[in-house]
Amino acid sequence: MNIEATGYIQLAYAYSRLGFKDTAHKFFEHAIEETTSSILSSPNNAPYYYQRATLKYEIHDYEGVVSDLDEAIRIAPQHIVYYDLRGLAKFRLNEYLDAAHDFREATRFPSSVYQQALLHLQLTEEWIQTSVP
């Protein structure tokens, strides 16, 4: 990833934590543009798609998150963290069954996100049972 993207990402998160949402949004947009440049120069680099997906999640572009993670998973399906974030985006898009499937995938192997994905799966299944007709 290029140095400009890294700088924009750091500024975006800093402004976001301080409560300056409009300013943070602008920096997230710049970081997305720079990450897109990195993707164009290295289109088979799954972590770039994941990075862009995390940025899109911050600005509530959940369809963009799913799209980027579809590509990251196509390139590197063994990265469990990709499934967890895609599940969160699908949940936000009211695609609860698909979200549960992604959370299940994220819990197939022990990893740094296993407990988090397991909690997401349990909450999603509970939501499906109580809220989805």
Beta-strand content estimate? under 5%
> How many strand units?
0
Q: Please compute the radius of gyration using only Cα atoms.
A: 15 Å
Could you describe the largest sheet, including whether it forms a barrel? none
How many helices? The count is 7
Secondary-structure-derived class? mainly alpha
Helix percentage: over 70%
Shape: globular
- In the predicted model, the low-confidence regions spanning at least 5 consecutive residues are none
N-to-C SSE string, H for helix and E for strand: HHHHHHH
Distance between the termini: 44 Å
Mean pLDDT over all positions: 84
List the helices and strands and how they pair.
Layout: H1 3-17, H2 21-41, H3 46-58, H4 62-75, H5 80-92, H6 96-106, H7 114-131
Helix pairs in contact: 1-2, 2-3, 3-4, 4-5, 5-6, 5-7, 6-7
Q: Please, could you describe this protein's structure?
A:
- It contains seven helices and no strands.
- With 133 residues, it is mainly alpha-helical.
- It has a domain of 65 residues.
- Helix 1 packs antiparallel against helix 2, helix 3 runs antiparallel to helix 4 and helix 4 runs antiparallel to helix 5.
